[in-house]
Amino acid sequence: MTTQEILAYVKQHPSGKVKLAVTDIDGVLRGKYISAEKFVSVAEGRLGFCDVTFGWDMGDVAYDNVKFTGWHTGYPDASVKLDLSTFRKIPWENDIPFFLGDFVDDNEKPGYTCPRQLLRKVLADTTESGFSPYFSQEFEWFNFAETPETAHQKGYQNLTPLTPGMFGYSILRSTLKNEYMTDLFDLLSKFGVPIEGLHTETGPGVYEAAIKYAPVLQAADQAVLFKTAVKEIAYKHGVLATFMAKITENLPGCSGHVHQSLWDKDSKQNLFYNEKDPHKMSDLMKSYIAGQLHCLPQILPMVAPTINSYKRLVEGAWAPTTLTWGIDNRTVALRALPCNSKATRLETRVVGSDTNPYLALSACLAAGLYGVKNKMKLEKEATEGNGYRDLSNGILPANLYEATQKMKQSAVAKELFGDHFVEHFTLTREWEWKQYAKVVTDWELKRYFEII
Fold first, then answer.
1. What is the predicted pLDDT for the residue at 339?
2. How many helices (H) and strands (E) does the chain have?
3. Are 36 and 10 in contact, with CB atoms under 8 Å apart?
4. Hey, what long-range contacts does 63-66 have (CB within 8 A, 24 or more apart)?
5. Which residues touch 305 (CB under 8 Å, ≥6 apart)?
6. For residue 127, how many other CB atoms are within 10 A of its CB?
């Protein structure tokens, strides 16, 4: 739609309001309603939005260690530029108009703390190199027959799963709660988040969805909106959805695998495909994989951003622990899928469902492009069989603190994303680790209370 058509729709909508949102460092959408009149006045200008968005954590507790904003700045408003190309209608809110925005500074330059702006930067680097990146993200998540109130009252323990038992790809279970599953598929598509597949995954009440591939910025928008939209649609059905990477040690974790390929500048040729290669992989694809293998340990918090992320990355739990690549192998970190000129792609399996899609996709693309620019070679053959046993290229950092320190000291991370972003982001991850480290957990009470 043109700007004039968008403005006309907003003015004519019976609600008289617009919903808009920005994304914080954790990938949480922060937004509000504004009047249609207000929207018209800022649609092609700027909107004030409190910069505490990047000054507190996902629990709204103010950081005491970041420089960007804080008590020392007084938490002023920052400027947000609405991206009219993200216009959507929210079908479960009477088709109210919705928009995403980007943070810019006083000189109209991208805000360095803004995850969406970071992806724009990486995309610009990729386009300048002559490539068109196409991405998609898939998600697994648990669904519970609970509300936020009941889950809180139960202390998030002994929650009732939407369906019992381990039923991956179950036709029976998709029939059992079909109204919810049908709404997910239909309403997400109407919301501009097209779903290619939706099914039950192994685990009580677990679903998995694959979002249709798109140009990388659009793919990230779709992924960010998917997570919030699923939760909102779930509310309508008396369901509580969670995208935690691991809810219990007794069940598999939840992935957020990223699929990616580079095309030519006209988006007509998949540059990852080479029919003459024994594996149908181009040299470009091999360099892209080599770049990710090299960079991932140095930027891991961008794809494993929480304390909980590392509870998923354990041996034998359908999540990688080693720096490995393989061809159609689900035990490795990087699963190459060379099949034909259209669908050949790389799947980065380290990524969990708890990620901020803007950061996860930025990490994958920048790391792959690093390998391409430096003409890196795959030093080892594809891992066959059990990737957990292949330690030849090293292992991933074991926890958020270790991963954050590695990123904080990494010259590669700073080259890819800039000193200011790396400093701010790693400080937020150090904050997250400190919040965790001071808490007495249930595990400690059960283990030590009586016996020690």
1. 92
2. 14, 14
3. yes
4. 63/427, 63/428, 63/431, 64/431, 65/427, 65/430, 65/431, 66/424, 66/427, 66/428, 66/431
5. 26, 27, 354, 355, 356, 359, 400, 429, 432
6. 13
Q: How far apart are CA 160 and CA 83, in angstroms?
A: 40
To the question of domain 3-111 being in CATH 3.40.30.10, the answer is no
Name the β-bridge partners of 195: 211
Residues 6+ away with beta carbon under 8 Å from 349: 255, 257, 319, 320, 330, 332, 333, 334, 335
Beta bridge partners, 347, equal: 259, 335
User: Which residues lie below 8 Å from residue 279, measured CB to CB, with a gap of 6+?
Assistant: 327, 336, 338, 382
pLDDT for the residue numbered 157: 94
Residue 221: pLDDT over 90: yes
Helix (H) or strand (E) holding 413: helix 411-417
Q: Could you tell me what percent of the chain has a pLDDT over 70?
A: 100
| pLDDT for position 391 | 87
Residues contacting 38, CB < 8 A, separation 6+: 18
- Candidate CATH numbers 3.30.590.10, 3.40.640.10, 3.40.50.300, 3.90.380.10; the one for domain 125-443: 3.30.590.10
Say what the pLDDT of residue 203 is. 93
Give the torsion sign (CA, 395, 399, 400, 403): negative
User: Where do the structural domains in the chain lie, given as residue ranges?
Assistant: 3-111, 125-443
The tens digit of pLDDT for each residue in 141-196 reads 999 999 999 999 999 999 999 999 998 999 888 898 999 999 999 999 999 999 99
Residues 326-345: tens digit of each pLDDT: 999 999 999 999 999 999 99
Tokens describing residue 18: 């617009």
- Comparing C-alpha atoms, which of 431, 306, 300, 358 is closest to residue 111? 358
Residue 20 has pLDDT above 90, yes or no: yes
Q: If you average pLDDT over every residue of the chain, what do you get?
A: 96
pLDDT at 321: 92
DSSP code at position 53: G
Q: State CA 145 to chain mean position distance.
A: 25
The tens digit of pLDDT for each residue in 290-313 reads: 999 999 999 999 999 999 999 999
Report pTM: 0.97
Q: Taking the CA of residue 157 as centre, how many other CA atoms within 13 Å lie in the half-sphere pointing to its CB?
A: 3
